[in-house]
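Weekly structure sync, notes
Attendees: PL (lead), two postdocs, one rotation student
Agenda item 3: pending single-chain targets
PL asked that the sequence for the first pending target be pasted directly into the notes so everyone works from the same version. It is reproduced below exactly as submitted, 190 residues in total.
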Amino acid sequence: MKNILIQYAKRFTDLSDAELERIVEEIPMAAFKKGTILLRQGEIPDKCYFVLQGCVRQYASDENGKESTFQFFTEEQGVTIFNQHAGDKASKYSLGCVEDCVLVVGDLSKQQAMYDMHFGLEKMILKMIEENLGEARDEFAAFIAATPEERYKSLLKNRPDLINRVPQYQLASYLGITPESLSRIKRRFE
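Predicted structure, written out during the meeting:
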């Protein structure tokens, strides 16, 4: 599993293999069972994650308990709730494991100490975040401009693994449609 992280990190840094191995040795990894809640809406986030194996869902519940899915994170994706701009720092989202997961678990309170200890780590993380934010912005713009059928086509093209990995009601919520509409759209593509 650590090798996956090293190979991913190489895309964003010119640190040597030995330096990356030292960093990875200090990073905790943990296994989480399907259904584990990593962060509850309203809690203050103190961890960040990187998916080595499995699928994590970002979602929120309204005052009536209706859940809306905003993102799925799968292998080689970082999972962080950025909310330092918020007055109370409380998360507007929950994070839950859709499958059994193996995750890198970063402690946000120790982030600066890691940067100080490993020269080049902060620059590498910044490049990773920039890529993730750019992709998220592009996905959001495409989502807003697309019809439900176009959203499903995009999902088939860009993230086809989600079709069989996540419950259909969560997938429908992610696409901004009802489960019944998703069923109708899927039938058109069979």
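Discussion points:
- The longest strand covers residues 47-53.
- The domain at 2-119 is CATH 2.60.120.10 (Jelly Rolls).
Action: rotation student to compare against the earlier draft before next sync.
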